[in-house]
Design brief:
The chain is of the alpha+beta class. The chain is built from 14 helices and 21 strands. Helix 13 packs antiparallel against helix 14. The longest helix has 18 residues. The radius of gyration is 23 Å and the shape is globular. The two termini are 39 Å apart.
């Protein structure tokens, strides 16, 4: 997934009983125990700056902390005490909390922050955001760092809250980069004990964690299951207490569990290759969009928190921007649009999608049936993930189906992804995305940000380089024995704060 970065295997949520956590005696969280987390995909790296895939992002989020974090729908200080901008807004001074330590007990210094931000600049898709925002970093005294900026940036604390802006030891703690990431040291709530590729990742409480009694667990174990049935059985048997990214088709098996619909941080969509063939014709693309029954797909395959969408940007990053109104399915219009092209007698198009998600496959089948009624034959082809990624980014496809996710609650990462992926391999111009990103970053208030996003969304709606279908709210399934999850409905699963949870007695 490294090449694809923000295109992640987010699966949609389902509705259920979202209960509240239970505290221990006296209302205090219970301390101790092991939380076993079940996932269906292994981690690919322990490098927080890669931003690759859900399982990877979730594990590195437990091992690392940033200057800021997102909690209960707000950006709050983490290892930083705060951020003070200069009079012209082109530099900021960040003051670190006193007495900070990494998980190995060594102190966290301004030099570590300077080194980490430079690493963030070199990371995956999100790295470009830091390069284009921060020109230099300089340690100041024993507890401060001065960041010089390209422009005043109202979202700087949000950008520095991403997992991809984690703070690690300068110079990898005296080790080589490869050695460091085999057994990384971080400032997060947990520390790495062991990793068995394809099987498990075992973490234990970071005794040097800066945030009081947190985390509440003694240990956090991620267990990799090779099938949804095996994962469901483990949950039912009590050997797993948490299932993030719960597969939609397995939700009925989680009867009696607490199911938390987290933030709608992804959009399922059809990627369109506009270089050759019928998809160069705008009316063909419009016919495809008009033929898709988004409402029926959500009703049949999604959860109560999912919504039909015509908007590329995930709902969590829209802010004051205006979501594109979702049009009802219109088969007659789709047929007429197709009739006005050289393909009026019918057209055959291939759509590729990754294996491993039964609900995604069923969604593709539904789209296939929708298009058939409009005279468009969709040849759906399932590929393993690596082959799907290679074909998508190299432009060796006609249509492709998957989801795009946001790193945080601002739009920089999703816009930057469109730019750096070259229009997601489809041969599309990235100029509008570049301009919108620049205007978004230069905005001094929410209204100006909204104007920039509306500009990009209007272009997507007019040209259809992608065809959005569903706004997805991923589900976190929790055992009734887990408490403390009241603040999790506003977070994204990629940076799930498992250090906030505890096991009840």
């Amino acid at each position: 997934m490294a090449a694809l970065a923000l295109v992640s295997l987010l699966v949609a949520a389902c509705s259920a009983n979202a209960g509240s956590g239970t505290s221990g005696p006296g209302g205090d969280p219970v301390i101790g125990g092991t939380l076993n987390v079940g996932v269906t995909s292994d981690i690919s790296s322990l490098n927080p700056y890669d931003g690759t895939g859900e399982s990877t992002s979730m594990v590195v989020a437990q091992l690392n902390a940033g200057l800021f974090k997102r909690y209960k729908n707000k950006v709050v200080p983490a290892i930083a005490e705060g951020l003070k901008p200069s009079a012209d807004g082109k530099s900021v001074t960040i003051t670190l909390r006193a007495g900070l330590k990494f998980s190995d007990g060594k102190p966290i210094t301004p030099n570590d922050v300077v080194f980490s931000i430079e690493q963030a600049k070199q990371g995956g898709v999100v790295g470009s955001l830091y390069k284009e925002t921060i020109t230099s970093e300089k340690a100041k005294g024993a507890d401060q760092v001065v960041l010089r900026l390209v422009r005043p940036t109202i979202n700087l604390d949000e950008l520095l809250s991403y997992t991809e802006a984690a703070i690690i030891p300068a110079d990898f703690g005296g080790r080589s980069k490869d050695e460091f990431y085999r057994k990384p040291v971080g400032a997060g709530p947990f520390a790495l004990d062991s990793r068995k590729p394809g099987t498990s990742v075992a973490l234990s409480r970071n005794k040097n964690f800066w945030e009081g009694k947190k985390p509440y667990f003694d240990a956090l174990n991620f267990q990799v299951f090779n099938s949804v049935n095996a994962l469901t059985s483990a949950f039912q048997g009590g050997t797993v207490q948490a299932v993030p990214f719960a597969p939609r088709e397995s939700v009925p098996s989680f009867a009696g569990a607490n199911i938390v619909n987290t933030a709608a941080a992804s959009t399922e969509l059809v990627f369109v290759n506009g270089r050759t063939g019928p998809l160069k014709n705008l009316k063909v693309r419009k016919a495809i969009s008009a033929a898709i029954d988004r409402k029926a797909i959500v009703k049949q395959l999604g959860g109560a928190a999912d919504r039909p969408t015509d908007t590329y940007l995930p709902s969590t990053v829209l802010g004051e921007a205006h979501p594109v109104p979702v049009k009802d399915r219109d088969v007659a219009r789709a047929k007429q649009l197709l009739a006005d092209t050289p393909y009026g007698g019918g057209v055959s198009i291939e759509l590729i999608y990754p294996t491993g998600d039964a609900t995604l496959a069923m969604t593709v089948q539904a789209i296939q049936e929708n298009l058939a009624s409009a005279g468009i034959k969709l040849n759906a082809k399932a590929l393993d993930l690596s082959a799907w990624v290679e074909r998508l980014l190299s432009g060796k496809y006609e249509l492709a189906y998957q989801s795009i996710s946001a790193t945080g609650s601002t739009a920089e990462s999703t816009l930057a992804f469109y730019v750096t992926s070259g229009g997601i391999g489809g041969g599309w111009s990235t100029q509008v995305a570049k301009t919108s990103l620049q205007q978004y970053q230069a905005a001094t208030d929410a209204a100006a940000q909204a104007k920039a996003l509306d500009k990009f969304q209007a272009w997507v709606s007019a040209e259809l380089p992608v065809i959005p279908t569903v706004s997805v709210s991923p589900a976190l399934v929790l055992s009734k024995k887990v408490g403390g999850f009241e603040g999790m409905r506003s977070v994204t699963l990629k940076a799930l704060p498992l250090g906030e949870l505890w096991l009840t007695k």
